[in-house]
Amino acid sequence: MLELARLDDLPADYRAALGEQNLVPLWPSLRAVLPPGQPRPRTLATCWHYESLRPLLLQAGELTPIEKAERRVLVLANPGHGLDKMQASAAIYLGMQLLLPGEIAPSHRHTPNAVRMIVEGEGAYTTVDGEKCPMQRGDLILTPTGLWHEHGHDGDAPVVWLDVLDLPLVYYMEASYVEEGQPQTVSGQGSERAYLRGGVVPSPVFARTNPRYPMLRYPWVDVRAALQALAAQQPAGEAVQVAYVNPETGSDCQNILGYSALMLRPGETLTLPARSPAMVLHLIEGAAEVDIDGKPFTLAAADTCCAPGFTPLTLRNRAGDKPAFVFIADEAPLHKKLGLYEVRHG
Predict the structure, then answer these.
(1) Exposure string (b/e) for 169-181, b if CB count within 10 Å is 16 or more?
(2) What does the pLDDT read at residue 210?
(3) I want to staple 258 with a disulfide (CB 3.0 to 4.6 A). Which of 74, 202, 213, 332 is the partner?
């Protein structure tokens, strides 16, 4: 490919004249913004081990009361973007959040979409739009854009969950903000119990309200059972994976990021092709190894790793005779809406 002229090739007085009128020549930077063949992501293959970060998270609970933190979170920052950017990939933010017994993280709502993947502990809850969602390990709880939500803890031991937000994208679009609110009044609980069977949805007195987010909590006990039932039916070599979707429409449960759960059978190795979206893998149960384009990581329960887009992955169950379960968040819905989604084989 033809080498283009550099900025330094232009006379200094010409560069100064451009700057005075807020003009920039494209050609010196053209290869950087339109690289040949495929993108050059800043996102790096990165892993965060829960055993290492957990003591620091608990120490944060001792150092900073909830009243001074509002949300007590350690951000899982990707070094490829710079730690100050507080992002795991171009569109994904990750954070480990701690709530101690008796604490309440006050009600607010914000423009970024969020989900909570519960990592450890019992007795906490998230109230979303008046629905109280209990938190148990492996549960996925949605706090979609614009919905009021708060967290509380009635138990007796620390509760930790993984926050996944589309904050980097919403912030980049200059659309990120938060509003504080009053404590919520619980008006409903357990919407997930109304969607226990596919194809059957609530229809009180033949009225179809079709709520935008009809299901806010996806219990791990149900998702795990679905994966095991699927594994019993599918032949070896086929991925055992389920998606978290809107039960009314079958579409992704949120607009920008996609969420799924994957089961690795005992001894199974699974190779995933290179796809355009970046992805995050969080190990719910078991033990696994992940190779991200030649960079290996060993995952124990509650470990989290990030893979850039256009990168092949290999997952291997190293849990002996037990299955391993992986929660996945990716940028696929965004890529598909923009017409950018791509899968590369070989």
Answers:
(1) bbbeeeebeeeee
(2) 58
(3) 332
